[in-house]
Design a protein that fits this description.
The structure holds three protein chains of three kinds. Chain A is of the alpha+beta class. Chain A has helices at residues 112-125, 129-143, 157-163, 168-181, 242-245, and strands at residues 2-15, 19-27, 34-43, 49-53, 59-66, 71-82, 88-89, 145-146, 165-166, 186-193, 201-202, 206-213, 217-222, 227-228, 233-239, 248-253, 256-268. Chain A folds into two domains: 2-82 and 247-268, Immunoglobulin-like (Sandwich), CATH 2.60.40; 88-244, C8orf32 fold (Roll), CATH 3.10.620.30. Helices cover 20% and strands 42% of the residues of chain A. In chain A, strands 7, 10, 12, 13, 14 and 15 form a six-stranded antiparallel beta sheet that branches. The two termini of chain A are 18 Å apart. By secondary structure, chain B is an all-alpha fold. Chain B is built from 16 helices and no strands. The longest helix of chain B has 31 residues, at 3-33. Chain C is of the alpha+beta class. In chain C, the strands form five sheets. In chain C, strands 1-21-20-17-16 form a five-stranded mixed beta sheet. A five-stranded mixed beta sheet of chain C has the order 11-3-2-18-19. A four-stranded parallel beta sheet of chain C has the order 5-4-9-10, with helices on one face. In chain C, a hairpin with a 5-residue loop joins strand 2 (140-147) and strand 3 (153-159). In chain C, helix 4 packs across helix 14. The radius of gyration of chain C is 23 Å and the shape is globular. Classes of the chains: A alpha+beta, B mainly alpha, C alpha+beta. Chains in contact: A-C, B-C. Chains A and C meet through strand 2, strand 5 and strand 16 of A and helix 6 and strand 6 of C.
């Protein structure tokens, strides 16, 4: 499938800031299931943008825009060719052994009820890791209600699990916390999801998890949709949790009254005739 | 030097100076309120004090009535008022702490000693006599800090920024104290130039320690335009706007010289100074003293903003 | 536990040579003079303590760390031994950290187990594969040393993050020279006063290649509310560098600048006394207001040196500590000159079983703890305390290590009843620059003032002493 993605973040300031510094993780890379045909990062400001690769292999762009300005927009746009790999993710850049992804982070720490949840799944599914992960996937998809209201970017897995509500970030954190609790390396993936129902305009990017299974390698699990990853998933960045894969991390000097608009569009690209 | 260090030194001086000013206002107001009741029909000196301190809006958010008790508490001891004497000394010490190594031992001792002593006053003195002593203590503390800075600081940018704080605050305060008369009511049966009017002017002069100076300079009875002349245009009067601006320009020039570069702050300061030099009292009174003061305070604030922007952030 | 080795009287009760003058002096000096000097020292410290009080507000009194006027003395030969051992140790620490964030050879060789590193909170994945200027990580190390007999020194802890205490080393010497000039003149004592110069030389030497010829060094502090702020301002003063807070710095195009009254000024080396977690909200804790947004980008672009580097905590982790002898051998091909205290890692079943059986004779510590908190000293603990600790240990064994209770050496110390032996340790400061390793002769001697106590931490009733290394 060829997927066309645009992702624009626009900040508006009532009182213009004197500067803004940001680090972006908005650029996908190639792996066996995904080929980036073209991709562009655009800023409304003319400052220098520095591209690097972080320790996890993600492409980062960093910049400092000098104010004053009353709006700032960061947008990316491009096309990605994807293939269904039955959720198996191979050919990725791996800088760490899977064991690293057993680390706990503040956002993915399992509390007693997540431990309970994980152990219940283990008791029901025995030693088969893949079956166990699918059980977690189905259970979370069933139990957590999608709701953008009660959680925010700093909500922990435990908090969201107690609410039984949240967005894709929260469900993914809970999945990761439970998997790690069971001794299965798991990580956070930020990216985009093409919706089969024809809705192309989205309010935010998507997020899901990857878990490492002996003999299979990394496998993508999307607990929000209750499925393994497919050709509809475009993988952008990975990390131990949201913070490691966040599309934008930034800070503002001076200014006030910031409002933020995110516009994501994920559509199937018109197939070009090949002659 | 670090902008933050300069900023701390600048505000440290401003806060100490402001505390002294508040003490002077309170002192003058106490005098005014001590007038024989016969003179005072409908007196509003406590309300005037709040207006002069520039915090009327904040005051009336907390209190309905401006009487001695409320105003004294608000201007001297309130922690809710960020510009009370107590808050000023707290802020001054907070700034001092942050730049401890940029201060001389004497400066630190002065400010820290003041702060420690302040703790002993608790929620305020219990009698008028004690309150008078408190006000004198505040003025002495400011003198001690000012003197220690003057006597012990190395003459470099740290010193210049610290002096800028003193003079910008002092210019603002002198302008405001002159405006007291605008806010003070003269009862209807009192005439301008009458005994109450006279007493009010005398209280103002005394509050800036300028009553004797007045007599030396003018050898005349108290006349409003001469009082204004003394506090606005006279170079030899150490609190006058002219004198403050002579010092501001001198210190900004020193900074420009050391840094090899000048900017909006230097230009603004020279502009204000030139306008003061070219002003005459009759012109000021023709346009209205209150309006002149209002404009001056705005321009002085603008200079403060330029200094902040150019050096302190 | 064997009887402790006394550094003045040795094992046989005769005075050891380095202490000859001091012993004679202690014999001559009337007790009331000693007591008088002790109070004088306290007074001087209280005056400096006014400086402490600045930051400590009402609890200023408590912040005064007791100072003992009787110096601890080491012979030149003893020091040479230590110096060699410390240099070796710190070289190994640097090689280890470089390897862990780079080629990971020691893991591939199976000398240190993978998961001890990768699952360790002190390991910073963000640093993996990221070069640092001159490949140096630990520029300032504070190695805690204890002694058990005439020839045996153990390393108790490697402090490789932001070790503190050096201001006490300098202040203690200053005070001793003021109080006891005559005792001073009877000895030839190696100076420590050049520490700030050595530190500045070290920091300047590790500036990035892109720095100007006179690199701009700053000291980054969390601010006046930090308990070590006094040391930060003290050191910045002695070094003659700016004491900056995070908000004084900003990053533009991967270069760090400080805000000055003359406009932005480039910063080349940051001697930071802020923990990794707070350094850069765009990489680590997003809620940190103490750090500099974008600092890590500038760091990884090679435009600024952080001293110490980010992620050095992996080397002073107590579980990693137990592998130090193997680490020294692996990188340097040498036998370690300083001993490691035998350590049981409770994460390993056999070790745990042994520890649970011998709690009454062991010291059990939290792997990531410091400051003497959260530890059990078996021989001194009550039955109840041991049982409570046993429960804690069983719930999270991987959080603990255990060591035999060492009989720390003692030194004569002023106490209520006169002069009596008290247990001590030593923290020398090891500086690693691009050119060489520098160690000023001495360090911070901490003394457990309570009779029989082995805990020297100031937060637990410990004091400090001046440490004299005799010249020649």
């Amino acid at each position: 499938m060829r997927i066309r993605i645009s992702h624009a973040t626009t900040y508006h300031y009532d009182t213009p800031p004197t500067g803004v510094t940001q680090v972006l993780r908005l650029t996908p890379r190639n792996h066996d299931g995904q080929y980036v045909a073209h991709w562009r990062v655009d800023l409304s400001d003319n400052c220098l943008v520095h591209q690097h690769e972080d320790a996890f292999g993600n492409i980062t762009h960093a910049f400092t825009a000098e104010g004053p300005f009353s709006t700032l927009s960061v947008s990316v746009e491009g096309e990605v060719e994807t293939q269904d790999t039955h959720g198996i993710v191979s050919g990725t850049i791996e800088r760490f052994p899977p064991g690293l992804y057993l680390r706990e982070t503040d956002l993915t720490q399992a509390d007693a009820s997540i431990v309970d949840f994980a152990e219940t799944a283990r008791a029901a599914n025995g030693g088969d890791t893949l079956a166990l992960l699918h059980a977690l996937l189905a259970a979370l998809n069933r139990e957590i209600t999608f709701d953008t209201d009660p959680t925010h970017t700093a909500t922990t897995a435990a908090e969201a699990f107690a609410l039984r509500r949240g967005v894709c970030q929260d469900v993914t954190h809970i999945f990761i916390a439970a998997a790690r609790q069971l001794g299965i390396p798991a990580r956070y993936v930020g990216g985009h999801f093409y919706r089969a129902d024809g809705v192309t305009a989205q309010e935010a990017g998507h997020a899901w998890a990857e878990a490492h299974i002996e003999n299979l390698g990394w496998v993508g699990f999307d607990p929000t949709n209750g499925i393994s990853t497919t050709a509809a998933h475009v993988r952008v960045a990975v990390g131990l949790d949201y913070l490691g894969a966040a599309p934008v991390r930034g800070t503002r000097y001076g200014g006030a009254g910031e409002s933020l608009k995110v516009a994501v569009n994920v559509a199937q690209a018109r197939v070009q005739a090949q002659t | 030097m670090l902008s933050r260090t300069a900023d701390n030194l600048y505000w440290l001086s401003r806060y100490v100076e402001r505390a002294e000013y508040l003490a002077r206002i309170l002192d003058a107001t106490q005098r005014l309120s001590a007038l024989p009741l016969a003179y005072v029909g409908t007196s509003n000196e406590w309300e005037s004090a709040v207006a002069t301190a520039g915090c009327a809006a904040a005051f009336f958010k907390v209190y309905d009535e401006a009487n001695e008790e409320n105003v004294t508490d608000f201007l001297a001891f309130s922690t809710a008022n960020s510009s009370s004497i107590r808050s000023c000394f707290e802020s001054a010490r907070h700034n001092a702490r942050a730049v401890r190594t940029a201060l001389t031992v004497e400066m630190w001792d002065a400010i820290n000693g003041t702060w420690l002593e302040l703790q002993r006053y608790g929620n305020g003195p219990t009698s008028r006599e004690e309150f008078s002593r408190f006000l004198r203590w505040v003025q002495e503390s400011s003198l001690r800090y000012d003197g220690s800075a003057y006597r012990t600081m190395l003459r470099n940018d740290a010193y210049w920024f610290s002096r800028l704080g003193v003079y910008i605050e002092r210019a603002d305060n002198t302008a405001r104290i002159l405006d007291v008369k605008y806010h003070l009511l003269l009862p209807e049966n009192e005439r301008v130039g009458g005994p109450l009017d006279y007493f009010q002017w005398a209280a103002i002069l005394r509050s800036v320690s300028a009553l004797t100076a007045y007599h030396w300079v003018y050898r005349d009875s108290l006349k409003p335009w001469l009082v204004a002349d003394l506090l606005i245009l006279r170079d030899e009067m150490p609190r006058s706007l002219a004198s403050c601006y002579e010092a501001i320009v001198r210190n900004l020039d020193a900074i420009a010289g050391a840094y090899g570069r000048q900017g909006p702050a230097q230009r603004q300061a020279r502009g204000i100074r030139t306008r003061l030099e070219n002003s005459r009292m009759d012109g000021i009174f023709q346009r209205g003293l209150h309006e002149f003061i209002g404009e001056f305070i705005t321009e002085n604030n603008r200079l403060g903003a330029h200094i902040t922007e150019q050096f302190l952030i | 536990m064997a009887a402790a080795f006394d550094e003045m009287k040795g094992q046989d009760g005769g005075v050891r040579p380095a202490y000859g003058e001091l012993a004679r002096w202690l014999g001559e000096v009337p007790p009331d003079v000693l007591d008088y000097r002790r109070r004088e020292a306290e007074l001087i410290f209280r005056r400096i303590g006014i400086t402490f009080a600045v930051y400590g507000e009402a609890d200023a009194q408590e912040r005064l760390i007791p100072f003992d006027v009787i110096p601890r003395i080491m012979a030149a030969s003893e020091w040479r031994l230590l110096e060699k051992g410390l240099t070796q140790r710190v070289k190994a620490l640097n090689a280890f950290i470089k390897d862990i964030y780079g080629a990971r050879e020691i893991l591939r060789a199976g000398v240190v187990p993978d998961d001890l590193i990768f699952r360790n909170p002190a390991f910073r994945p963000e640093m993996s594969g990221q070069p640092v200027p001159h490949d140096l990580y630990v520029h300032v190390a504070g190695i805690d040393i204890v002694r058990v007999d005439a020839d045996t020194f153990y390393v108790l802890e490697d402090n490789a993050r932001t070790p503190s205490g050096v201001s006490y080393m300098l202040e203690n010497r200053e005070i001793m020279m003021r109080l006891f000039p005559e005792l001073f003149s009877r000895h030839r004592i190696a100076p420590v006063e050049n520490y700030p110069d050595e530190l500045l030389a070290t920091l300047t030497s590790v500036a990035p290649v892109s720095a100007s010829r006179e690199p701009n060094v700053v000291l980054l502090t969390p601010g006046v509310f930090n308990s070590a702020y006094y040391e930060h301002s003290f050191l910045a003063d002695k070094l003659g560098v700016e004491l900056v807070e995070g908000r004084d710095l900003f990053v533009k195009d991967e270069i760090v600048y400080m805000r000055t009254t003359q406009g932005p000024k480039r910063v080349d080396v940051i001697y930071r006394r802020i923990d990794d977690d707070f350094l850069d909200p765009l990489t680590f804790r997003p809620d940190s207001v103490l750090g500099v947004p974008g600092l890590m980008a500038a760091y990884q672009a090679g435009n600024v040196t952080l001293a110490n580097a980010v992620g050095t905590g992996i080397a002073d982790d107590k579980a990693v500590y137990s592998f130090m002898p193997a680490i020294v051998k692996f990188y340097l091909g040498e036998e370690p000159l300083l001993k490691n205290v035998p350590t049981w890692r409770c994460r390993e079943e056999e070790h745990l079983a042994y520890v649970l059986d011998h709690l009454h004779e062991l010291v059990v510590k939290e792997v990531h703890g410091s400051g003497g908190y959260g530890m059990l000293i078996g021989p001194a603990a009550s039955k109840v305390a041991i049982e409570q600790f046993r429960a804690k240990l069983k719930t999270a064994p991987k959080n603990f290590i255990a060591q035999p209770t060492l009989a720390l050496s003692t030194c004569p110390t002023c106490v209520e009843a006169g002069v009596a032996p008290r247990h001590v340790d030593l923290r020398p400061f090891v500086l690693t620059g691009r050119d060489r390793v520098r160690i000023v002769p001495g360090g911070l001697t901490r003394v457990a003032l309570k009779e029989g106590s082995l805990v020297v931490n100031s937060s637990q009733g410990g004091g400090t002493k001046d440490t004299w290394v005799l010249d020649g």
